[in-house]
Amino acid sequence: MKDVVVMGGDDWLATRFEQNRDRLRAVAYRILGSEPEAEDAVQETWIRLSRSDTATIDNLGGWLTTVVGRICLDMLRARRGRPELPVADHSPVLADDVVPDPELEAIQADSVGLALLVVLETLSPAERLAFVLHDLFAVPFEDIAPIIGKSPAAARQIASRARRRIRGTPEPAGVDVARQKQVVTAFLTAAREADFSALLEVLDPEVVVRADAGAAAYGGPAAEVLEGAARVAQVFSGRAAAAKLVLVDGMPGLVWMRRGEPLIVFSFTVVDGRVAAIDLRGDTEYLENVDLVTVKG
Questions:
Q1: What is the 3-state secondary structure (H, E, C) of the chain?
Q2: Span 5-54, pLDDT tens digits
Q3: Which of 66, 44, 117, 113 is closest to 87 using CA atoms?
Q4: What per-residue confidence (pLDDT) applies to 159?
């Protein structure tokens, strides 16, 4: 395995960097799941350190962790912009013909096995970074937040969401995801086509619609709570042309986007094949943390 190339500079700074190198490589490997990419991230961290004013750095270890985290985040985002390789193609622990490196094995052994690497591949870049830094390296959310461009509270939520995915949290008991998708799709179609009768059919007679202040500001129901199928159908008839079918934290719902950013999220409660409740959420903090995945209608 290649070592980080220390290109000149102060011997003291190089020594301090070498003292942190194993930790940086461990952080990078656990975020990226790739030995070559982890080495590249560590090398880039050294380059940035050598070009920085070290007199302004109070905590070198923390500074290096932050920098390598930002580099890894950029690499993950760039990776998403090109076709994904199977995990085996960029993870040395999965390749049968690679001679194990004792040092790398020691880095991987305590917390990153095959199963975790595979699951990490399903996370978004921000989720992956927040989970690895906090859960595996005990980095405070106050330090993670600026790396992913979120508040500490949002970073905590992102890590929590990643943790649920990794643990394979089951769907709520009694929820038929496929059936809910059918009902939400029927609601969306009827709303788009201004089909009042079809809306009444898909809505429970006592349906309730709740909107937070953010949703109301962008055209949600003015009333805090809207009740009754007739009133709800009247409000939504002809008004969902821009809505898209998505998974909202894993459950079928809708989202209204503008310039690629969510403005209002529609979460549905479906009972006996009809919409019993719709929650419209446009609160900024909620939109920063909700997990939205576009699905085919």
A1: CCCCCCCCCCHHHHHHHHHHHHHHHHHHHHHHCCHHHHHHHHHHHHHHHHCCCHHHCCCHHHHHHHHHHHHHHHHHHHHHCCCCCCHHHHCHHHCCCCCCCHHHHHHHHCCCCHHHHHHHCCCCHHHHHHHHHHHHHCCCHHHHHHHHCCCHHHHHHHHHHHHHHHHCCCCCCCCCHHHHHHHHHHHHHHHHCCCHHHHHHHEEEEEEEEECHHHHHCCCCCCCEEECHHHHHHHHCCCCCCEEEEEECCEEEEEEEECCEEEEEEEEEEECCEEEEEEEECCHHHHHHCCEEECCC
A2: 444 446 888 899 999 999 999 999 889 988 899 999 999 999 999 888 88
A3: 117
A4: 85
Confidence of residue 88 (pLDDT cuts 50, 70, 90): very low
User: Tokens standing for 12?
Assistant: 């003291």
The mean pLDDT of 98-110, rounded to a whole number, is 41
Give pTM, 2 decimals. Answer: 0.50
Mean pLDDT of 155-165: 80
